Amino acid sequence: MFVLPPPPRYPTAAAYNAAVGSGQVAPMIETNNILSSPSGPEYQFLVGEGLYVLKEDLHLATPPPHPSEAPVVNPNPLATTPQPATAGSKLTLVTLDVRPLPPAFYKISSRSSGLQQSIQEHPDESQSSTEPRESSSDGGRMNSSDVPLLSPNVPAFGEGNILLAPPTSKDANKRRKPKNNMTKSNSSFISRVILNEGLNKRLQDRPNDGLFAFANINRAFQWLDLSSPTKAEYLTKILFTKAHCLCHDVNWITKSSSHIDIIMGFSTGEIIWWEPISQRYTRLNKNGAINGTPVSEIRWIPGSEHLFMAAHMDGSLVVYDKEKEDAIFSAEEEAAAGGGVPQQTNGESVNDGSTTGSNSNHSCRMQVNKSVHSKNQKTNPVAVWKLSNQRINAFAFSPDHRHLAVVSEDGSLRMIDYLKEEFLDLFYSYYGGLICVCWSPDGKYVLTGGQDDLISIWCPSESALIARCQGHHSWVTSVAFDPWRCDDKNYRFGSVGEDRRICLWDFSVGMLHRPKAASVHHHQRGSSVSSRLASMQRADSGESADKEKILPHPVEPRSRTAMLPPVLSKTIDEDPLCWIDFTQDAILTSCKSGHIRTWSRPSDVSPQGGEDGDSR
Amino acid sequence: MAGFFNKLKGAGNGISKVDSNASLKNKKEEPVQELTPLEKLLQNAGPVREDGSDKFFGLENFGNTCYCNSIIQALYYSEPFREHVVKYPFLPAPDSLDGQQKKVHVTIRPPIQPNGTATVPGKGQKPTTSAQALKQRQVVNGQVVTGGQPMRPEDKPDSPEYKKKQSMIRGPVLELAQENPDAYGMEECTFTGLKDIFTALIESNTRTGVLSPQRFLDIFKRDNELFRNSMHQDAHEFYGLVLNDVIANVEANAKRIQEKDESTSNGHVTQATKITLGASGGITSQAVSGRTPGTGWVHDIFEGVLVSETRCLTCETASQRDETFLDLSIDLEEHSSVTSCLQNFSAEEMLCERNKFHCDHCGGLQEAEKRMKIKKLPKVLALHLKRFKYTEDYSRLQKLFHRVVYPYHLRMFNTTDDAVDPDRMYELYAVVIHIGSNAYHGHYVAVIKTKDRGWLLFDDEMVEPVDKHFVRNFFGDRPGQACAYVLFYQEVEFDAVREEMDAEGPEEVRLANLKADTSLVSEQVNGSATVPLSKLNTQPLQPVEEDHDPMPSLSHAQTAPGDIASTVPLPMSPTLPDHSETHPMVAAPPPAPAVITNVDEAATIPPKSKDEKSRDKKEQKAQEKARKAAEKEQAQLAEKQRLDKQTKIREAQKSEQEQLQKALQESRRIAAEEEKQRKREMGDTPSGVSEGGEKSFGFLNRASRGSKSMTRKSFAFLNKVGDKGDKAANGDKGSDKSDKSEKGESSSVSAADGPGSSSHPPQQQQNGGGSHSPTTQISQETPEKHDKPLKERFSFGLGRKKSTKFRS
């Protein structure tokens, strides 16, 4: 008769169950990562090109709370105490090797002039690929910040501001390291650093093209070698006292076998620049000197060795220089008023609901609180842009290194020309906040996923919504293109969500089924904006567009929007998933409780044969 | 219990509204009382508004009436509903009625003295029922009564109980002991009760306080047999019944006026009627024909229309049928979203095997496909998450703790092609939350978005501002067993949403800062030289001792963990042995989760900052070894505590279970008695319609009334569900009005439903069995009411359970 109540749920249900199963309490002691390779029908999925099979499941150990942070289990479920920000495990993958490009890039770079209409192509852009950065191409990771499409005509961020010029580097191979030694740190921020005993030997012995992974879990941050058979043994584990690392990124310009630049954004708003090989680090935005809100996304500015961008939860994007000191920041008035930035404060007045007067940001504006062209560049921040007051959930740089797509909790997708610090376009989700964003490898399309359970495909050059993708049963937490299965017409992308599902999608513009009315080309506003966008790109001054106020695009009704079904939808984990990415050999996913799963691509299909599998 | 309240009532009646001012003055004279968060929020608020949108009153709990309180609050903050309820019987004659209408018989209960005794009623500290509720709440919260001299939860600052008590002390406590239906020209009914509450709140000259909805509950219980006990009830069911009651009441009134007019003025419709009919009729532009005028507004706000399309797989004939709904009950899936659950709701369903469909065209039971889409979207969309599921293993309702995420905004994917405004945007404005491990007990609270004061938590007497992110704490995956149960979405313009998001920016920034701060604060906490384990911050420290001054009578206050903290704010270790001595039952040291309550930010920050310096010192000294040892120790300690706690919880739950059993038996006994008595009275109940067995019972009566008020179709559907169940159980003896109305529908329609309602034999057997012996009815009826494994998604399939229950 007496029925036990369901067990209290812990953030790591699996760990809890394991503990309860063995008659113990929830894990309070440090545990190790566990590598397993379960098999069975639930650990594989079939798509047109073949069968993806779970190669292995690397379960990152959730660290116990810091001794000073005895778990406060508040029995009152209605307690109104604010919860600190946290995030599920996400990975940054990096390989030190120069690998061949995925096929999609080959196609694009070998084409002569087929992409004039797409936004990333400057009319007089040449296709020469002699620039040195080509060497930084990646094999492992397809995030937008490191795509080799970079044309030499694209200026670097902050170019023209002499003050931003990097300190003359004496030797390219001798990179500057951060100041502090992590292992000997007595910072209250870092609790403990554990190095693999054979770290140096392992670093020497590993294949150069092997994949490194950096992963956050709870208050821990791990450096893993995914090419090692003993990958469960981390190379380095950092335990922070309380702060959770929410996001991290590796600089693809500076990476080498002796140097890797990693930046991490924390729930406390602080940022750490870490160089894992020398185990040195620097803290930025210390104690929130520049911005006191958590960092939800952080990325190196493509092509820059020093500058990176962090999205803070108060809706600002802040550019930092890894080597500059913090300085208390207050908005620079002249920056907001002058430069190439339109005078925004006099624009449309915010309705009386807002209390902050000139500081308030209407969502249709971008307030440049400090321009990259500011004369004051001795200290951080390098630039500060306030997009709105709503939390920014993610952003992505376009492959051509010109544009920035930013998604927020208010459901907005903002397109920004970050080189010119100009706000270009504003779209909204069907409903609910947007959680993730990525660019197609060719820069033609932007994907967003969010709380409407949808993935939306946007075309920035046409300023239009192309399709909505329905297949998830809950919020979509991560999207990524599979560049090995993309060509100039067909795109493959994958997504994961809170529903623990992976969805794979095949998308080609011609095949889209548009209900009733074609929304794209008949969209008046879209065309006007696109012309504006194009004019902005061409015009050197960009004055023509300055006075124009950015109007948000109305939400497209369902009846006019193409709906794309997934080619695959399958539950692949026990916990909500939070990250997906593609490598040449596999799809990688990770979940909230730290399971990193590697799904091998179909073995019988050559990884280069991107086209044959698309027919389905 | 009633006697007690009568006492209170009697005491309260003598005091007029003037007293509210007096009590207000009292409040000002007592500097002891700090401003509550709500009062802080309301500081500098302008003049009191006319529409009542800035009244934030708690509702008194009479023991297990939180289901009522949370729903009333959610209804009150639905602007269109509140306006219509207040306006409804539009009485044009100002000379006689205007003055009267303004006057709700509100009495202000004398404030309870801080030491816990009410001034007039003497010994009554808190109604016993409330004490019971507290106890229950305690168990729900995982708190354990520690025997000996337990600290009462309401004495612990920051506990909900304490806050509730404070709310009562602060007052003013508005009592609605009497209805004034005459002023509305209506009979006393659920609607007038609700109207009185709304009016009393709107007319109150204070913004905050507590309202005692006793009379409303009395009336509601009078009309609704099922709720005539002090048991835990289903909030969603209550919601449905209240809306149905309101519809029925309003409709009856309209009809009565019409008849009166027809008889008195010889066919000339008087001005009053015209307005009564017109005022509401005008709004219902899309009113379905056949609806009695005057009730349009309720339908207009809450009612949507579903199309159920059934396609026979044999002859490919598709038949459509419209059904109205006042809310949608959606099945839950683990790790899904409300969006997805709604899609499943409209997913195609095969009618096969026992569920076959009776096709008109080919004649006979055939396999068919059925799907339901929404044709008309309601203004207020109430989504009932079916968290209570009947499980055969336990033969009881299990609560599903599935993680179901809900967005702040919503659009419906499952609309028909011809739906008006299929992309209508909704915003979440209220969440009714169930806290507890199963359907039979627990607690309901509501989190509601108010017009311009953000989100507020309504927990019976207590009203507390919460931030927007708080709303997301009830997806179902967090400890504490609190899950969203009913979601209220209201239609909203997209531009308004955007504007609001811009406007709430500063608040968002503040929250973002807060999120960082919580981590920052602890970042500096890294152990200290003086306090080896620095568990300090886990201790519920007391903010001010003054808080205890008003309660000098508490003799046990000295030993209570909370008070130790306030008097001995620093090291914990010395107090440890002391503590276990005085409290033999308390095996766990103070920081045990069991005794930690709502750790208030304000309360914890000062000691933390105090410790920062010393911690920094410690930081330098701290060696890895020491830390490891500490970690281990901590782990062992925590394990011990946890085990202790677990056993305690188990014990507590066992005893609670026993209590529940007792209560169940008791209520069964009472029910049986009542049943007998009712049978005796049945003959001379004037309201009873002369119809077979169910005459004196609310639902079918109301349903037959309702079949006029709602569209005939809609109610036909409801009745049908009930009738089918009846037929199965009672050998098809029920052929009442509603049944006839059902037969008026196309027969394919009834067949479509037939299988649905008869597809669950075990359930019917139960009903059948239950109908024989009244004593078993209550226990069996409850599981049945939530048990909808068949795709019966209508929340208003209440007909079945009621009719089966009381037909004997």
TrEMBL record, chain A:
Protein name, entry field: WD40-repeat-containing domain protein
Role summary: Component of the regulatory network controlling carbon source utilization through ubiquitination and deubiquitination involving creA, creB, creC, creD and acrB. Required to prevent the proteolysis of the CreB deubiquitinating enzyme in the absence of carbon catabolite repression. CreB deubiquitinating enzyme stabilized in a complex with the CreC leads to the expression of genes such as those in the proline and quinate pathways.
Polar residues bias spans: 77-86, 109-120, 342-364
Cross-referenced SUPFAM superfamilies: WD40 repeat-like
UniProt-listed Pfam families: WD40
Skewed-composition ranges (Basic and acidic residues): 121-136, 540-559
The organism of origin for this protein: Podospora didyma
GO cellular component terms, A-Z: cell division site; cell tip; nucleus
Record-stated family: Belongs to the WD repeat creC family.
GO biological process, one term: carbon catabolite repression of transcription
Ranges for region Disordered: 59-86, 109-184, 334-364, 518-561
Keywords in alphabetical order: Repeat, WD repeat
Keyword Repeat: yes
Residue windows of the WD repeats: 427-458
Oligomer and partners: Interacts with creB.
TrEMBL record, chain B:
Location of region: Disordered: 110-166, 541-808
Keyword Ribosomal protein attributed: no
PROSITE patterns in the cross-refs: UIM, USP_1, USP_2, USP_3
SUPFAM superfamilies for this protein: Cysteine proteinases (SSF54001)
Catalyzed reactions: Thiol-dependent hydrolysis of ester, thioester, amide, peptide and isopeptide bonds formed by the C-terminal Gly of ubiquitin (a 76-residue protein attached to proteins as an intracellular targeting signal)
Swiss-Prot/TrEMBL keywords: Hydrolase, Protease, Thiol protease, Ubl conjugation pathway
Ranges annotated as biased composition (Basic and acidic residues): 152-164, 608-683, 721-745, 782-794
InterPro entries: Papain-like_cys_pep_sf (IPR038765), Peptidase_C19 (IPR050164), Peptidase_C19_UCH (IPR001394), UIM_dom (IPR003903), USP (IPR028889), USP_CS (IPR018200)
One CC-aspect GO term: cytosol
Biased composition (Low complexity): 136-149, 754-766
Biased composition (Basic residues): 799-808
Domain of life the protein comes from: Eukaryota
EC number: 3.4.19.12
Record text on subunit structure and interactions: Interacts with creA, creC and qutD.
Protein name: Ubiquitin carboxyl-terminal hydrolase
A biological process from GO: proteolysis
Uppermost EC category: hydrolase
Functional note: Ubiquitin thioesterase component of the regulatory network controlling carbon source utilization through ubiquitination and deubiquitination involving creA, creB, creC, creD and acrB. Deubiquitinates the creA catabolic repressor and the quinate permease qutD. Also plays a role in response to carbon starvation and the control of extracellular proteases activity.
Domain USP: 57-492
Stretches with biased composition (Polar residues): 126-135
PANTHER family the record matches: RE52890P, UBIQUITIN CARBOXYL-TERMINAL HYDROLASE
Family in the record: Belongs to the peptidase C19 family.
GO molecular function, one term: cysteine-type deubiquitinase activity
Pfam family, any one: UCH
